[in-house]
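Researcher: Sequence of Solute-binding protein family 3/N-terminal domain-containing protein follows. Predict its structure.
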Amino acid sequence: MDSIINRKDDALRAWKCRLRASALIAGLLFPIFSQAETTLYVGNVAPFSYPAGQAQRGVLYDLLHELALRVGHSGTVNVVPLKRELEMLRTDNNSLGAISRLADREQLYSWHIKLMQDRIVLVSRADSGVDISTLDAARKLRIGVLFGGPSESAVRRNGFEHTDPTTSTESNVRKLAAGRVDAIAVLGGMVTVVGNMPDSAHMSLKEGAVLETVDLYLAGSKNFNPEEAKKWEMAFKSMQKDGTYARILGQYHYLPLK
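Model: Prediction complete. Tokens:
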């Protein structure tokens, strides 16, 4: 009888030991699972990002990658279509990305770091004869824009009557080359990129009026952890202080923020 009781006691002690060990392991693993790495996004629009294998990865890609390394992140940046980036940043509380700060986006995201500025300009074929020198002259023209991008928002705010949204800059350039749009609205940094595309090989481009200046921010969802955001803000300050920020922007012919 005593041996049976002893065996039961031994089994109970062994079960308690396994339970304590499981609790210890769970306690050690909990911080790992509860602090999942922030997912980083950038839209697949040159010169802000380029596909893997290119000599350069893009100005916003490089800024996010460097910021990530400085907060102990792996540095992985996901290049995705702009509409997907906007949706993921809005719905995923543990994601960050670089997007334009626009009035119609203001209440949808949390805005953490002003990364850079650019301007939205009109571009047309030099031989088309259309007048894009002023906004008034261009308002009745057919304007190609990037669907969901800052140019689409800008032409709408500036009273343009005929816009033609598309999902890629390449499609916009093809439409311009074929005469299906009179001009396209793009960020200033994209003008050189547009001029170097295959569909631009047989046409000269001219740059016209500036619609507006746009700020590009590191942004997240409305519920992004404010304590985590502070780490990224401190990392950006360190990039400014040691000159890395100015160096990255200079590689893409942008001026750093003052």
